[in-house]
Amino acid sequence: MIDLYTAPTPNGHKISIALEELGLPYTLQVLDLARHQQREPAFLAINPNGRIPAIVDHDAGGFAVFESGAILIYLAEKTGRLMPADPQGRSRVLQWLMFQMGGVGPMMGQANVFFRYFPDKIPAVIDRYQGEVRRLFGVLDGHLKDHEYLAGDYSIADIANWAWVRTHRWSGVELDGLPHLKRWRDALRARPAVQRGIEQPPSKIDLARDGDAAAQRFSQEARAVVEMGRAGRTGGAA
């Protein structure tokens, strides 16, 4: 049995999707990030960095793994699935996994901060991060023009990138003019395990369902939580 410590974020959903695809039994331990449960000593003993996701594999003697990319590799190697064993095939998967870890995730994360959460809108900064996200999406689209999946067969590389790409509207970036990326996005979204994975746990806001007004309210609430946490760490000093 695996304990998955997570929250409704792209990085968290990477792991729940992989666990569902692999059919591994797991228990969901949802952390309330607004209450800073990720900073509590019990969780820091599992992940010293105080971030989700993390897992504890009880079948391996309570072995803990943190960092979403490392968890995906661990699960793939544990099961012998979602990543080839040969050096070249494994390398192809890891290249596209690192593309997400070092590019898509960080750039979308920064776009989210300045487009959704940062109280002062700085157009040049927003344009910079949204432009880089769009560039990275173009790289994916160009590769997917001639490939069904990112690295041969469906793999952890697809899972990692898809979990972020699916949230493109939250970053303020559309997929117009990227037909191959759209095709891939929709194909993965149709997979039953992917559908189950993004509900473990479900996202708090869905732009298609809730609309931009609800997104704005959610952003304001999230910003207030961040400011409260900052005040607490500084003793409330202005």
Automatic annotation (TrEMBL):
Matching Pfam families: GST_C, GST_N_2
Domain GST N-terminal: 1-83
PROSITE patterns: GST_CTER (PS50405), GST_NTER (PS50404)
Domain GST C-terminal, chain residue ranges per copy: 86-205
UniProt xrefs under CDD domains: GST_N_Ure2p_like (cd03048)
Membrane spanning residue stretches: none
Protein name: Thiol:disulfide oxidoreductase
